[in-house]
Amino acid sequence: MSTKILWPVPAPVLPPGVHPALAAATEAAVSAFRTARERYDRAELAEKTQMGADGTPTMRLDILVDTAIAEVVDAHGINLLSEELGSIDNGSAVTLVTDPVDGTANAAAGVPLSAFAGVVAVDGVPVEALTCWLDTGRCWHTVAGQPTPYRTSGRRELDGAAVSLLRPQKHIADAWWRVAKRAARVRILSTSCLEAALVAEGSTDAFADAGSDTHRIVDLAAAMVTVTAAGGAVIDVHGRPLEIDNDLTRRWSGVVAATPQLAEELADAIRGSSEHTPTQEETA
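and the corresponding structure tokens:
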């Protein structure tokens, strides 16, 4: 019995006006993702084949997609900063910052929650972002300083919010539950870039790493453009600046929220510095 993922991978629905290198990288990522699924079974896709630039083991699926993206940036003469291959310097002021497959464990298992995320940065400043939901072809595209069709929910309070979180871990269990007890709904989708896009369009109120310092800049770069333009905020739990940096061993605990007020309240709750008074339901 085949253990391949048989569901077809559609072409990305790219809006007009996408930076040529970003559009080509998106198409290359989707094509490589599709080919990998056709060629390899679940176990082969998930096999750890090498160490990524961030110092963590890399699945075969990541490398196959990242290699296709690297060929695009070389053809366009721009730089690359990618989760797996790291930094490729082609002497350009323009850098494509990518997470080739965000949610690789989902993708390799056949769970349809994974995304490609790419950001065009000029002299280290992110100016354009695109996130593509790999299993549907749906894309979110934003250019900094230009009107965007996306608007967040506008929620300002954590109490009653719909929040996505990274999975709970033992060393952050208290912080995780401080958030979960106050939220009306908690989701764990395991794909940060896609979850951030859902905040930008108002489908959910916030997404956060509850203090585990899991996020790299490639996980947050697209949100820094898209969510901010939609009225939201992207911060680090501990107030560390988010910046494009070739050192992919740097980590953050990102908070992506519908408003700056919600972002700060969520970060306060994670740190345990919130003055929130528990309700009877929370203490029961």
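(Above: one complete record from the training split.) Residues 20-39 form the longest helix (20 residues).
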